UniProtKB/TrEMBL annotation:
Assembly: Homopentamer.
One of the record's GO molecular function terms: ATPase inhibitor activity
Name of the protein in its database record: Phospholamban
Annotated source species: Astyanax mexicanus
Entry's Gene Ontology BP terms: negative regulation of calcium ion import into sarcoplasmic reticulum; negative regulation of heart rate
Length: 52
């Protein structure tokens, strides 16, 4: 168990020191925004259908 915790901590430390490229961050933000917009559109369509 002790060894597993040590390996996990080492992996987390390595992941936190890893540098994420700016382009990757921007892509993730754009994906998230697109996802939110699609959700909002679907919700609006659902509401319009309910009101009909």
């Amino acid at each position: 168990m002790e060894k597993v915790q040590h390996i996990t901590r080492a992996a987390i430390r390595r992941a936190s020191t890893m540098e994420v490229p700016q382009q990757a961050k921007q892509n993730m933000q754009e994906l998230f925004i697109n996802f939110c917009l699609i959700l909002i559109c679907l919700l609006l369509i659902y509401i319009i259908v309910l009101l009909m």
